[in-house]
Specification:
Length: 155
């Protein structure tokens, strides 16, 4: 197989419709827009606030607008469960840097929260930006320590 042998899959590429190019092209005369009127003109549609006396679309929506209705000041965290920390040797120190080296974090720039799902059997020193109550209890019950990291944005 060579480069000149490569072809796209059958049916994956489709030519665009060339409108207003005469009757023979199949989209001549009115170019698929019907007879004259507002709908046949260029630039028709799109403005959701022009609805001829009806309540405009954007006013029918709930008040919270933008960014998917999520809180503006929300902090996203990398979530790591207690059961995932069992891969470390007893007595080792677990930090966000160590977790990112082990590829346990999705986005390395985000802060880390330790969640309480599962059990831990080894005594570890865990440093993170946040701990849930159950996670902190489980780590300390196994003989480990928890330290909260204060980031530049918080402090």
């Amino acid at each position: 197989m060579k480069l000149h042998d490569l072809k796209p899959n059958e049916g994956s590429k489709k030519n665009r419709k060339r409108v207003a190019r005469g009757r023979g092209a199949g989209q001549g005369k009115y170019a698929g827009r019907g007879l004259n009127g507002q709908r046949s003109r260029a630039g028709f549609g799109g403005a959701l606030y022009r609805q001829g006396g009806n309540l405009p679309f954007y006013r029918r929506l709930p008040f919270l607008r933008g960014e998917g209705f999520s809180p503006v000041n929300r902090i996203e965290y990398n979530e790591v469960n207690v059961e995932a920390l069992d891969v470390f040797k007893a007595g080792s120190e677990v930090t966000p840097e160590v977790l990112s080296e082990k590829r346990m974090l999705h986005k390395t720039k985000l802060p880390v929260v330790i969640l309480g799902r599962g059990d831990i059997t080894k005594a570890l020193t865990v440093k993170a930006h946040r701990f849930t109550k159950s996670a902190k209890e489980k780590i300390e019950a196994a003989g480990g320590n928890t330290e909260i990291i204060i980031s530049e944005k918080e402090g």
